[in-house]
Amino acid sequence: MVIKNMDYGQVVSSVCMYVENRVRKKISYNEMARVIGLSYRRIREVFEANYEMTLARYILTRRLSNAAFNITHTNKSLIDIAFEYGFDEYNTFSRAFKRIFGITPMDFRKDGHAVGRQALTQGVFAPVIPCEFSNTKTERTDNIMSNECILLGVPHPEFGGLAGSLPFPIVLRNCLNYMGQQIDQSFILTASCAAFNMRWNLSKWDEGQHDIQLTYKEPYKVFERGFQAAGRSYKMLKRDDSDKDGFKSFIREEIKAGRPVIALGIVGPPEACIIAGYKDDGDTLLGWSLFQKDAAFKKGVRYHENGYFITKSWWENKCTTLLMSIGEEQKPLSDDADILRTALEVMTHDNFIASDDEKSEIACGQAAYNAWAKRIDDDTNFAPNQLLPLLRAKYACHQDGQIMVGAGRQAAIEYLKSVRERHPEVSELCDKASAYLNIAFSAVAWEMHPLMSQDKRGMSHEKKLTKFAERETRTQLVGLIRKAQENDYKAQGIIEKIVRQLEVNA
């Protein structure tokens, strides 16, 4: 259907949105004409007149801009990136990249060029190279409609890598990348000191005890440390201090400025997710959640064509408890002495009472290892013919310990490698601490795994749980927990020496 008396500004916005959602696909000009309601010839004329760039060049530039984002912020090969964005040959991609940006993709990655985000048109942000649209008529943030705005191209957060299954470092890294800062999630995990975390709930079998908010007694301190370590200011708004209109206003202000919002909840449990857009003045939110496809959480959730969740019931989700914004100014990262000094506090913290409804006592550091080993070693916790749901919950708690030590210590090792490069005077100490941490990591990440997976053809989950409950298996698990504990303690002693040496040299 052809729309009469159309606002050509809306045509440009629609074209930008259409292209941005298909930067990895072949553009169908017939479909574009059908969706927008003008002939393709008229679309080209309107776009060039209002954007001062031909539509063909715009499409090519947007493909290359999104490719540039991947070059800067991922470890994907240049060839894979070229194919991902529709180029049949790397040489074609490289020539086009140099023609548009004046530099080859290889040199772009080697030189560490920045890629951030900018308003392409009214209510639409997307990844750009800073100078890319300096000569075009882009709409600025103060002209953006208040009832709808979307940030396209915010990277999809996925579990895996050195941050393991901890959402906050993953989503903070993705948001910072989108804002133009190159930073790794393992650094965020380490600099927030969650990488040195070991916690165990003494009050119950707790499937959520690896929650990153238990790194400190103050539940939001780990988020504050993450922002500070990245050199960013931040704002937080708690549900207890606001109503829905307050949350909506906070979200609108940040999204209109091109800044994604980190939230707890929205879709799924009270874990970090990304708000990347809003509609209906904020009643409808769009973004990424690591849980948006889980059967338990996707009721009432729809999906944008680029994959973002779309939800109207975000306020009704009682797990929606906190909003966090990221400041524009980028200051120096936290220094190594401060990070490691705080890491020691995390490793040696006394037991504390968690701020939940049940006031659970949380054991820390070496005491947490002791509690973990004691719980697994206690035969009364593993009665014969125990119901599978109960056994599954206990196995999940055991895996919490594996996650904390496995994902955490692996990230800490990578961080210590960078410390030795910046401070050659402590390189030997960094190597020693890394060696101990690696033994702890290996004990829980590699040596525990075969104990429940001895069948080379694979083992059903039921058989794995049964194997876990066996006395012999649990005895070996306790031995590996003690092995991790011992080497964690040795690493702690070396880190104390590193901190003293860095303080002397400061």
What is the fold's blueprint, element by element?
Blueprint: H1 8-20, H2 29-36, H3 40-51, H4 55-73, H5 78-84, H6 90-101, H7 105-111, E1 116-121, E2 124-128, E3 149-151, H8 167-178, H9 185-191, E4 199-201, H10 221-229, E5 232-238, H11 244-256, E6 261-264, E7 272-279, E8 284-288, E9 302-303, E10 309-311, E11 322-330, H12 336-348, E12 352-353, E13 361-364, H13 365-377, H14 388-422, H15 427-447, H16 461-469, H17 471-505
Parallel strand pairs: 2-3
Antiparallel strand pairs: 1-2, 3-7, 4-13, 5-11, 6-7, 6-11, 7-8, 8-10, 9-10, 12-13
Helix pairs in contact: 1-3, 8-9, 9-14, 12-17, 13-17, 14-15, 14-16, 15-17
Task: Describe the fold and architecture.
The chain has helices at 8-20, 29-36, 40-51, 55-73, 78-84, 90-101, 105-111, 167-178, 185-191, 221-229, 244-256, 336-348, 365-377, 388-422, 427-447, 461-469, 471-505, and strands spanning 116-121, 124-128, 149-151, 199-201, 232-238, 261-264, 272-279, 284-288, 302-303, 309-311, 322-330, 352-353, 361-364. The chain is α+β, with helices and mostly antiparallel strands and 506 residues long. Mean pLDDT is 90; it is low at 1-5 and 133-144. Strands 1, 2, 3, 5, 6, 7, 8, 9, 10 and 11 form a ten-stranded mixed sheet that branches. The protein has a three-stranded antiparallel sheet with strand order 4-13-12.
